[in-house]
Write a structure and sequence with these properties.
Blueprint lengths: L1 E6 L9 E10 L6 E11 L7 E9 L6 E7 L9 E3 L4 E10 L13 E10 L1
Antiparallel strand pairs: 1-2, 2-7, 3-6, 3-8, 4-5, 4-7
Length: 122
């Protein structure tokens, strides 16, 4: 399994959505794998609930995206098991939005998060 990612610092206004993390998982083996993704806030945990997050996937054969998880960054659900066929790849993209219910308290707030990938042969 190969793993490539890029990270960025994203500045947001309420109701503005931007991609915050994108990575691709390639399966160069001759068997299928299943991956499950979980998300956890690392810093800024007290303000993580202000950030609404959506996780999308796309394949190397189709640019169409599929929503696989969404929620507040401090309570993001795990994805279901996602199959990556032998010789294929799956790209994950996190879109982050600041909730429109936050006030001036959110100004300058910073949250770091991690995406945890579990994979198994199927």
């Amino acid at each position: 399994m190969q793993f490539n990612q890029d990270t960025s610092i994203v500045n947001l206004l309420p109701n503005e959505t931007r991609p915050a993390l994108r990575y691709t998982v390639a399966n160069p083996t001759d068997f299928d794998i299943e991956v499950t993704v979980s998300t956890a806030a690392l810093t800024g945990i007290s303000v993580a609930s202000w950030f609404v997050t959506r996780l999308f996937t796309s394949t190397d054969t189709s640019p169409a995206t599929m929503l696989v998880a969404s929620g507040a960054l401090d309570a993001m659900p795990n994805t279901v098991a996602l199959r990556i066929p032998a010789g294929s790849a799956l790209t994950f993209t996190y879109d982050v939005m600041v909730s429109d219910s936050v006030g001036n308290d959110a100004q300058g707030a910073t949250v770091s998060f991690q995406s945890i990938l579990n994979a198994r042969q199927v």
